[in-house]
Each structure stands twice: as structure tokens, then as C-alpha cells.
Design a protein that fits this description.
By secondary structure, the protein is of the alpha+beta class. It has one domain: 2,3-Dihydroxybiphenyl 1,2-Dioxygenase, domain 1. The protein contains two helices and eight strands. An eight-stranded mixed beta sheet has the order 2-3-4-1-5-8-7-6. Strand 6 and strand 7 form a beta hairpin.
Length: about 120
């Protein structure tokens, strides 16, 4: 497994307001916004993400982009961690794991899914 990028994910009940706040703090616009689902800011090598409606809970998380989600998941489970089965979103496959059930934070591991190219008509 190779980690390609690390970042943070913060839950946002009102994504538009959260985007406005980070835009004001960072002095730059979001690099990616997907309606009310998701937004991200790439500041140098750091990615700060906001999870709107596309989130499984209200837990702040470390985000790790990996090259092989299935291999990473197998390794975590072999080490005794209870990682959730992957879910597929419109841009990625992802799973989450916590150090314990009581932990106030999680790690979201994800790998991008290939872009879907429309078939010629």
C-alpha cells in the first residue's frame, strides 16, 4: 500500500457557509465543490475537505488516499481493526476505521474510481 495524499475531513451541516468561512480564512476559493455533498481546498501540499451530505457521521477524520484500498483493508483487518466494508461514491471507493468504537476521530481510506467516459452515439 502506498499513501498518495493525506488531508483532513470536517463534517459540515451547512456546506455553503463552511465553504464561505474557509474561503475567508484561506483567502482562496475551494478547488473542488460537488453540490451539497463535498468541498475541498488544496493549500500547498495540504488538503482540507468538508463533508456535507456525503458523510456517514459527524466524526472529524484523517483522509488517506491509497493506491490499493482492498489490500489496505485486508491488512487492517488482519491487524485486528474493524474496518467498514467499502462504499462507492461518484468519485471514489472508501472505507473508514477507528482506533476504537469510542474514538472521537476516524481514518477514511479512499481510492479514486476511474472517470466514466460517455460512450459514443
Amino acid at each position: 500500500m502506498t499513501i498518495e495524499r493525506l488531508g483532513t475531513i470536517f463534517p459540515a451541516d451547512n456546506l455553503a457557509v463552511a465553504i464561505d468561512l474557509l474561503t475567508a480564512v484561506f483567502g482562496t476559493a475551494a478547488t473542488f465543490v460537488d453540490n451539497d455533498r463535498w468541498a475541498q481546498f488544496d493549500i500547498g501540499p495540504t488538503r482540507v475537505s468538508l463533508a456535507g451530505t456525503d458523510r456517514e457521521g459527524d466524526t472529524p477524520s484523517l483522509a488517506a488516499k491509497v493506491t490499493d484500498l482492498d489490500a489496505t483493508l485486508a491488512r487492517l483487518r488482519a491487524a485486528g481493526f474493524a474496518a467498514a466494508d467499502p462504499v462507492t461514491g461518484p468519485h471514489e471507493r472508501r472505507t473508514s476505521v477507528r482506533p476504537s468504537l469510542e474514538s472521537p476521530w476516524a481514518i477514511v481510506l479512499y481510492e479514486p474510481t476511474p472517470a466514466v467516459t460517455p460512450s459514443p452515439r
